[in-house]
Design a protein that fits this description.
alpha/beta; 6-stranded parallel β-sheet; 8 helices; about 15% strand; elongated
């Protein structure tokens, strides 16, 4: 999977640096950082990750402007209270800051492919838009157990952690992960999660 170019926005310099390091460690290319909207310069990134501490009419308008130029924005919120406003202003993705790091990288890659990402706890509050275009269906359906493993895999759990959560052996967990990768036609756990989102098997 080719590198996705990401710009990080956060008023907190520590949070900004931490996000940049985290994203780079997940194989994403961080092309810039800024403390606020309207400061990204040069070639447009594929995705903007916005650590959203507080919303105002000005920042909501800036978000709408980014949507107009075709740069998808993943907003990281402290809680669920402003999710509807941020989504309606043009964010293509919303996660909560407490989500797992693996979820963040999967969400960024999903946005770069034209999908939308919504934190699961918000699914009952907001309509989740369906991906545009056609996605090639699976040749072989995942079993119920494989779907369980897929969800844990997308949360960033290791084979050992998956085994403990499902009360199975680590060898069995590894077998399920290998079967999932094969059925989805991908080579990595991150690609599996992105592919699952495309197929509607996984809602981030």
């Amino acid at each position: 999977m080719s590198e996705v170019r990401v710009w990080v926005i956060s008023e907190d310099p520590w949070a900004r640096a931490g996000l940049a390091t985290l994203l780079a460690g997940q194989g994403l290319e961080v092309v810039g950082q800024s403390p606020g909207e309207g400061e990204a310069s040069g070639e447009l990134p594929d995705v903007i990750v916005w650590d959203w501490a507080a919303q105002s009419e000005k920042t909501l308008a800036s978000l709408a402007g980014l949507s107009d130029v075709g740069v998808p924005v993943l907003a990281l919120l402290n809680d669920e209270t402003e999710a509807a406003r941020v989504l309606s202003a043009g964010a293509q993705g919303i996660l909560l800051r407490e989500d797992e790091p693996q979820t963040l990288s999967v969400a960024v890659r999903a946005l770069a492919q034209g999908l939308m990402v919504l934190e699961p706890r918000l699914s009952s509050l907001l309509a989740f838009p369906q991906p545009q275009g056609e996605t090639e269906p699976l040749g072989e359906a995942l079993t119920p157990r494989e779907l369980q493993v897929l969800h844990l895999l997308a949360e960033g759990l290791s084979n050992k952690q998956i085994a403990k959560r499902l009360e199975i052996s680590e060898h069995t967990a590894k077998f399920h992960v290998a079967a999932i990768l094969s059925k989805l036609g991908v080579e990595s756990r991150t690609e599996a999660a992105v592919r699952a989102v495309q197929l509607g098997l996984l809602l981030l």
